[in-house]
């Protein structure tokens, strides 16, 4: 099979890890379906990623849609099906969506605290959407033996960070979903793993209260004296897409230069 026939789906393709992984996969010969959710001000980022993929001689089919909407998912899967006629399936999927509420649980004014809607939205977008996409991609025959699904967790799944309560819960759920999907998809030969990236300076990171302090702390204590970069994860993803990596599933893979040990 020629490299030109390989396709990956990146959920969250316009920025941070999703953008870096899209570019690195394109370098490695993959065409990219990208889903992102950008308004006018951030839309140029998506356009740039798409152009970079095309400049590498690969195809880029991008959708500016909310991944958590059932109708959007159905529509995008149908369009991917049409595009993939000759090849039929996806080699890889990366779920790299950052859309969480960063309010505290406890605040004197209830409006300043996470409420039911915010909690449910955060867990739905950042964790549960992995399950719904995977279910529908399997049903549509777009994930087959050898296909690999990855998602993005953080040390926040098992640590406390100010303002990170809802996202932290989403990360715990995401890791649990990864194990469960891996169990249920093992007989089909589809692997599901989760990257635990180190702290990385992306637009999502800059939304976290105290992010400057967190950055300072990491720069002081990190074994390698630097923060993680999206490209660190992108190189790891490309390496793990190798078909010889075929006995690893249901795991959380740390890509943080040893940061979580400190
Ligand atoms: N930055 C970090 O320090 C860090 C560390 C570990 C894990 N992560 C995780 O990595 C993932 C990506 O984060 P990032 O730092 O690259 O963020 P980012 O802000 O750079 O990129 C987020 C991407 O998600 C897309 N997106 C957001 N909401 C969406 C929605 N509803 N539908 C479709 N697309 C949507 C955006 O358009 C963008 O492409 C997240 O799950 C995040 O929690 C981040």
Question: How does this model look, in words?
Answer:
With 262 residues, the chain is an alpha/beta fold. The chain has a single domain (3-255), classed as Rossmann fold, CATH 3.40.50.720. The chain has seven helices and seven strands, in the order E-H-E-H-E-H-E-H-E-H-E-H-H-E. Strands 3-2-1-4-5-6-7 form a seven-stranded parallel β-sheet, with helices on both faces. The termini are far apart. Nicotinamide-adenine-dinucleotide binds at residues 12-18, 35-38, 66-68, 96-99, 125-126, 152, 154, 197, 199-200, 202-205.
Keywords:
262 residues; alpha/beta; Rossmann fold; 7-stranded parallel sheet; 7 helices; globular; binds nicotinamide-adenine-dinucleotide
What's the arrangement of secondary structure elements?
Blueprint: E1 7-11, H1 16-27, E2 31-36, H2 43-55, E3 60-64, H3 70-83, E4 90-95, H4 116-139, E5 143-153, H5 165-185, E6 191-197, H6 211-221, H7 230-240, E7 252-255
Parallel strand pairs: 1-2, 1-4, 2-3, 4-5, 5-6, 6-7
The structure holds nicotinamide-adenine-dinucleotide.
The site of nicotinamide-adenine-dinucleotide has 29 residues, from α1, β2 and α4.
């Amino acid at each position: 099979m020629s490299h030109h026939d390989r396709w990956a789906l990146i959920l969250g393709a316009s920025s941070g890890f999703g953008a870096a992984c899209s570019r690195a996969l394109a370098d490695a010969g993959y065409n990219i379906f990208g889903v992102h959710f950008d308004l006018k001000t951030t839309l140029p980022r998506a356009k740039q990623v798409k152009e970079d993929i095309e400049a590498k001689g690969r195809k880029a089919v991008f959708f500016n849609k909310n991944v958590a909407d059932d109708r959007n998912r159905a529509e995008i899967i149908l369009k991917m099906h049409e595009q993939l006629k000759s090849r039929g399936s996806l080699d890889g999927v990366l779920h790299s969506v950052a859309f969480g509420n960063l309010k505290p649980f406890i605040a004197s004014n209830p409006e300043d605290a996470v409420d039911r809607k915010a909690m449910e939205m955060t867990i739905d977008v950042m964790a549960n959407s992995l399950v719904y996409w995977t279910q529908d991609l399997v049903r549509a025959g777009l994930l087959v033996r050898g296909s690999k699904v990855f998602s993005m967790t953080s040390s926040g799944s098992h640590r406390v960070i100010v303002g990170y309560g809802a996202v932290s819960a989403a990360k715990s759920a995401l890791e649990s979903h990864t194990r469960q999907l891996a169990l249920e998809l093992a007989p089909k030969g589809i692997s599901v793993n989760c990257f635990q990236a180190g702290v990385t300076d992306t637009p999502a990171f800059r939304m976290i209260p105290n992010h400057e302090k967190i950055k300072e702390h990491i720069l002081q204590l990190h074994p390698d004296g630097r923060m993680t970069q999206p490209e660190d994860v992108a190189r790891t993803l490309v390496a793990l897409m190798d078909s010889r990596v075929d006995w690893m599933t249901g795991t959380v893979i740390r890509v943080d230069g040893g940061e979580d040990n400190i």
